Amino acid sequence: MKNSLRLALVALSASAFYIVATPPALSAESAVHSLRGIDVKDEGQAPEMRVNPGKRPGSQKPIARTFQQQPPVIPHATDNFDEITLEENQCLTCHGPEKYKEKKAPKIGDSHFRNQQTGEIMKQMSNARHNCVQCHVPQMDAPPLVENTFKGLPVKAQK
Ligand code: HEC
Ligand code: HEC
Question: Which residues of 133-155 are buried (b: 16+ CB within 10 A; e: fewer)?
């Protein structure tokens, strides 16, 4: 077969496939709606930036816990701190066992020294506690995203 003929045949079979594979036009009722609820060409509105109401560490009061084993929330601002990395952890420069007295900060909890596998209490903090913000979260003055009926235990009942 000549090359040009072969090409023409390929083009023809491709267009035949296209005709068969094209879905029928959508009716008005079944038209697709975006989950965003607005037209693609309209500019979306980013929600207003929320500010952490906490101030410099050393000037804040602890926030009451809602049950005994709750990791306490962070009452102070954290915006100016460096990210926690494998090598560095700024939180420990105030809350670590060597520094907390000098910095007048609460010492990391007793449970942070427990070896998770053996249960033994170690001199060093367990590496499983390195990523503080996995459990301790700063606060934002924002309405809850979803309603809920959670009620914390009164402080007396926690003792
Ligand atoms: C410059 C020192 C400093 C640094 C850095 C720091 N903190 Fe604090 N933190 C404090 C002090 C002081 C308090 C006591 C409350 C206050 O005075 O603000 C406190 C309170 C807390 C509390 C509340 C404890 C309780 O019993 O309610 C938590 C949790 C906490 N910090 C976690 C963190 C985490 C996590 C980081 C790192 C992201 C961090 N802190 C970095 C000094 C510091
Ligand atoms: C796996 C979750 C988890 C991680 C990770 C973690 N904590 Fe905690 N933390 C807790 C819980 C739960 C408590 C309350 C029970 C206790 O005191 O051990 C607590 C208590 C504390 C307290 C209050 C202690 C007291 O005596 O009232 C401080 C301060 C604290 N953590 C700081 C830190 C810092 C700083 C880091 C990172 C180096 C960290 N935590 C990592 C769960 C965690």
Answer: eeebebbeeeeeeeeeeeeeeee
Q: How far is the CA of 76 from the centre of ligand 2 (A)?
A: 15
| Pocket mutation for ligand 2, best pick of 65, 81, 100, 108 (most atoms within 8 Å of C-beta) | 108
Do 60 and 106 meet the contact criterion of CB atoms below 8 Å apart?
A: no
CA distance 123 to 121: 7
Q: Report the range out of 13-17, 23-27, 123-127, 142-146 with the highest average pLDDT.
A: 123-127
pLDDT band at residue 128, thresholds of 50, 70 and 90? very high
Mean pLDDT of the chain: 84
* Residue 131, ligand 1, Cβ within 6 A: no
- CB-based contact 66:153 (threshold 8 Å): yes
> Around Cβ 71, how many Cβ atoms within 10 Å?
13
Q: Which of 77, 75, 76 shows the shortest CA–CA distance to 64?
A: 75
